[in-house]
Amino acid sequence: MPRFLHNYITNNNIMNQTKYIFVTGGVTSSLGKGIIAASLAKLLQARGYRTTIQKFDPYINVDPGTLNPYEHGECYVTDDGAETDLDLGHYERFLNVPTSQANNVTTGRIYLSVIEKERRGEFLGKTVQVVPHITNEIKDRMQLLGKSGDYDIVITEIGGTVGDIESLPYIESVRQLVWELGEHNGIVIHLTLVPYLAAAGELKTKPTQHSVKTLMESGIKADILVCRTEHEISEELRNKLALFCNVKREAVIQSIDASTIYEVPNLMLEEGLDVVALKKLDLPKKAAPDLKNWNTFLRRLKNPKHTVNIGLIGKYVEMQDCYKSILEAFIHSGAANETKVNVISIHSEYIDASNVNEKLAGLDGILVAPGFGERGIEGKIETVRYARENKVPFFGICLGMQMAIIEYSRNVLGLADANSTEMNDKTTHPVVNLMEDQKTITDKGGTMRLGAWKCDLKPDSLAYKIYGTTTISERHRHRYEYNSEYVDQLQKAGLIASGTNPDTGLVEIVELKDHPFFIGVQYHPEYKSTVANPHPIFVNFVAAAVKAKKK
């Protein structure tokens, strides 16, 4: 074979070979593996590489849908109806590319799949073990997106920290896969902590050394170290980390605390994380990353012309991760309006008719958040009444929309005991009811109405004005819906049904005409808000809050 042809084939194979980056964490959880993974993906994407990210979580739940928000933060939902880890939200917000069922896998899903195979007789006669059966299943899942041909680089975030018992099968799978993929096809980034000891007045590298040692005991050598820190890491310390952790000096990357997560891609660019990763994967740098639009967003975020106070009325306000996508959507929509959005979290359980005026005074807008169960419900209903009567811009999401329907039914229509059958199954006016197809369901996991559904908008409505189109697609996560039997009655009384699902006939959007801004939606618009495309309802809601404040 002529040499030029050999080179052509070899180079083509190299270019067609999907490359893998694995992100592990050490020392402590919550260091921000998801943000580092998303930032690196953003830089690689901006250089022209087709990049995606997936998350492997070491808990036994088959998906995060059955987890308490206090334990795990919000459950993020994809277009194809997967209930996933909240990190997938970061991936979408940074990359502006939808994720799917394949982007999030838990230990529960892995074991369930292997057990089902065993029951079908696929391993007949064999002893089913963690190695090779569980690890093979993990490796197959890790390569699923890579084998689709849609991506040049797949970044895989491994949940938990190195050394955790539950993470061991994942770490072993990464070790095997890096070895099987061969040189330059799979690398490991280890995110670790370099803590500052105030008493000693210095940064300490020992936790990182121990973490890398634990990783090496599992047979994995970190290719790149990303060191989370509150203070600048000196050149001396970087050299020390390189020497004792077996990595090249250029591969010791500092990740210092930033004022916003959206600064991290720029910080990683300065540190050269993307260049080092490409070098280790034997890929060309291509053009310098085009972050023009990203930096425009950052500039608008950091230099607001207005400030508004928006009340977030919810049941899980003690933990900010419970409403992560909503908070991020406010950052996107705030920047779009050149407005700083101060989100004031208010617990609905502590709101009632006697204190609602005091609790909600001084707000320029009110968002009633999603949730489940009857705790704090009456406080949410009181909040809707306050927003409606005092002409405060109002936005209700999922349960928030249902509260708006109940409030209007009680206080305008005069149906005193109007309620949702979720809160009171004996109510004489079930204006919100369990969906028909939910009535026969007994299993709680993955059985809600999930994923993207179409919605047709009324041409002369606020919803149409916001979206600028007659048909939209939004993501859902609920079991209860606006009861169709009450729609006409409430509409005649002024509560407009402006968005309807064309397949089911169920109302998805309600709004009021004689109000500066009043809208409730059954779906979760916050899941689709990204840096590149802030969600139009949030953008318009923040604009209405700015207008209300100026009055």
Short description:
The chain is of the alpha/beta class.
Uncertain spans, ≥5 residues at pLDDT below 50? 4-15, 442-447
Number of helices: 19
The rough form would be described as globular
As a whole number of angstroms, the C-alpha radius of gyration is 26 Å
Structure summary, number of beta strands: 23
- How far the N terminus sits from the C terminus, by CA atoms, comes to 79 Å
Question: Residue share in helices?
Answer: 25-40%
Q: How does the major sheet shape up?
A: 9 strands, mixed
Give the neighbour order of strands across the main sheet: 13-12-14-15-23-22-21-18-19
How much of the residues is beta strand, in percent? Answer: 15-25%
The residue-averaged pLDDT reads 88
Q: SS-based structural class?
A: alpha/beta
Describe this structure in words.
This protein has 551 residues and is an alpha/beta fold. It is 37% helix and 21% strand. The protein contains 19 helices and 23 strands. Strands 13-12-14-15-23-22-21-18-19 form a nine-stranded mixed sheet, sandwiched between helices. Helix 15 crosses helix 16 (399-411). The termini are far apart. 48% of the residues are buried.
